[in-house]
């Protein structure tokens, strides 16, 4: 299944790339998402999801495949799993950032999404609708981040050569992450059955989150 998304950010392309490649800074922009640890080029996290009175957590990870800082182009792979065994989802994401003007840039994200298990029953229309709604939430949060934090404060995120035995770094959580309300996002008719793919969908709609 192929998905296509575009959004703009109100900063120059070079500044936008600096923000969008800082995963630790950007992760809170994803509804319900939380980065938990980094091991070399592998980033692991979880998504908290609320369906009515039920609160659940789903695990996933992503890794950087290629990154061209000069041309603002990168690709990554992501996967998520339902711990209840209802299905798995995996995605290959390609993201490109292009200048629109001296003070804005457009991000284009193309995703190949593969779903297995019970969640494979959902058609492209349902998944595309959910990812579109999540994208709107992500962009709103991203613009708030840009407005509240100077671009110059973003650290240099240029990739470094991996070590032979990468260490695992736990990410300290400074505050509780609010869960993604799936009933509001997906609608009650498919919410309970769609939950297992939300980990990857969250990565899909924010595919420009390029992993260092």
Please tag this protein with its features.
globular; Alpha-D-Glucose-1,6-Bisphosphate, Chain A, domain 4; 6 helices; 9-stranded mixed sheet; alpha+beta; disordered C terminus; 25% helix; 39% strand; 212 residues
CATH architectural arrangement: 2-Layer Sandwich
| CATH superfamily heading | START domain
User: How many independent structural domains?
Assistant: 1
So what's the overall shape? globular
Concise account of the structure shown:
By secondary structure, the protein is of the alpha+beta class.
How is the secondary structure organized here?
Blueprint: E1 2-9, H1 13-20, H2 23-26, E2 33-39, E3 42-51, E4 54-68, E5 73-81, E6 87-101, E7 104-117, H3 124-148, E8 168-170, E9 180-181, H4 182-186, H5 191-194, H6 198-205
Parallel strand pairs: 3-9
Antiparallel strand pairs: 1-7, 2-3, 2-8, 3-4, 4-5, 5-6, 6-7
Helix pairs in contact: 3-6
Could you explain the architecture of this structure?
This protein has 212 residues and is an alpha+beta fold. Helices cover 25% and strands 39% of the residues. The longest helix has 25 residues, at 124-148. Strands 1, 2, 3, 4, 5, 6, 7, 8 and 9 form a 9-stranded mixed beta sheet that branches. Residues 205-212 have low confidence and may be disordered. Helix 3 packs across helix 6.
